[in-house]
Amino acid sequence: MAEWWYNNKTGVVEEGPQSLGSDRDGPYATKEEAGRAPQIAAERARKWAADDAQDN
């Protein structure tokens, strides 16, 4: 089963880890999901911020 990665430096979806770990997000199960990596990261950050605000 292939793993997909999103390269934050180039904006390109990669099959398998092709670039430096510091430049990529993943792995994702599908190419489409990897393509949404910036949105997924933003959604997770908003959720974490909301959770932190509730804890304080």
Could you spell the SSE succession in H and E letters?
EEEHH
Distance from N terminus to C terminus (CA atoms, Å) equals 42 Å
If you compute it from the alpha carbons, what radius of gyration comes out, rounded to the nearest whole angstrom? 13 Å
> Looking across the biggest beta sheet, what order are the strands in?
2-1-3
Characterize the main sheet.
Answer: 3 strands, antiparallel
Classify the beta-strand content into a percent band: 15-25%
| Secondary structure tally: strands | 3
- The low-pLDDT segments are none
> What is the residue-mean pLDDT, rounded to a whole number?
94
Question: What is the count of helical runs?
Answer: 2
The share of residues in helices is: 40-55%
Structural class, from secondary structure content?
alpha+beta
Overall shape: elongated
Quaternary organisation: single chain
Concise description?
The protein has two helices and three strands.
Write the layout of secondary structure elements.
Blueprint: E1 4-7, E2 13-15, E3 24-28, H1 31-35, H2 37-55
Antiparallel strand pairs: 1-2, 1-3
What does this structure look like?
The chain is of the alpha+beta class. A three-stranded antiparallel sheet has the order 2-1-3. It has two helices and three strands. The chain is 43% helix and 21% strand. The model has no long low-confidence stretch (mean pLDDT 94).
Using brief descriptors, characterize the structure shown.
single chain; 56 residues; alpha+beta; three-stranded antiparallel β-sheet; elongated
